[in-house]
């Protein structure tokens, strides 16, 4: 019999269901939950190991918790809303009313949001509490999570390494139990990279399933928003809330027929039985630098096979590095999309265009070259259209491959090598397949490399499952079964339970 979590002393690895059980039984209030996470942030984010994942706390979080507690006490027979009292970490390129939206850039200070982003409004309607805005790679334009406002976020499993990116602040915070649920954004790798690096679940949804209204854009053909959580079940609950039609984002027009009653309905630890999963061999490395990841992946795939999945070797010559070079369009769109966003920014924002940002000479050096490249590529319609055509050809090729092999999903490591040390550029990530097609993908914890002095658990390795458009229910079902079979999630030793 499962023992109830003692929330009076620890929120370590708390889940939405566990928290709501405790609230219904009178063992926990929303205020106690919020305060517990604030205490952990105070102990470990800027102090202790200095994980440095939080850019700004919501000054009204405790007041919002008090309001929810009073509401629940006044109507004890009314079921709790799906995310009642749940503290959420939000990447700071998403607007939350009353808080700045900086994307980590000092030149965007003063960008005080008047309204919530569509997905934040959905979260609040479901009872969630915005606890904090998190650090990111500045302007969501890199994989190491370093910014002029936030500095360098560290990986809580190995404080000498990056947490991946660009949503590394959210991921490091969720991994270290600074909040219960997390929201990230993904233009190429940016949800799944930090999920892989921080022993978490990260879901990039099908383009159009989740609104981007209120997002500081990098390139709206590829930009999307999604969950970063410690468990698949919590990712499914979070997706239930944020998925859906938004009249302000036309890409969401097609989503409604594909959204189930709940993404949690078919979660089943036996769901791998009878499935066919294609192992995309071109997304594995074969050098000595890839051995640590390959060893974890070999063991993880063997576990999936033991759970009844049929693994189909796919030798299709789809090379991630070639896709990165030839199919992505964000740099062709970044100037136009960012200029349109900044043109509507509050009067307190001193930059009104990408040209202003470049002229300010204030961005992190890792981003300056990207912005200049984007200015050069803006308006190159011939190359832009050619890349859009390549994306469509890739969609058709992948759908044909999956149909020919009767596959439920494709599987591969999110990164071919371990997440890099601080100061190095992120290398050999595989998230491009989902970003170039707009198809969904989920990363789950697969295991750890061998422990060493810097990484007492080892460095986390993430397994990516990739599916057809709007197949989130399938991916979550497979991920849930794989998560239960692998049992790879564990909290980092750098941020233990407070006493």
TrEMBL record:
Q: Which domain of life is it from?
A: Bacteria
Q: Which organism is it from?
A: Cupriavidus numazuensis
Which SUPFAM superfamilies does the record associate with it?
Amidase signature (AS) enzymes
Name any one GO molecular function: glutaminyl-tRNA synthase (glutamine-hydrolyzing) activity
Gene encoding this polypeptide?
gatA_4
User: Which InterPro entries does this chain map to?
Assistant: Amidase_dom, AS_sf
Q: What is this protein called?
A: Glutamyl-tRNA(Gln) amidotransferase subunit A
Pfam families assigned to the protein according to its UniProt record, in alphabetical order: Amidase
EC class, as a word, reads ligase
Q: What is its EC number?
A: 6.3.5.7
Provide this UniProt record's keywords sorted from A to Z: Ligase
The residue ranges of the Amidase domain are 33-476
Q: Any keyword Nucleotidyltransferase? A: no
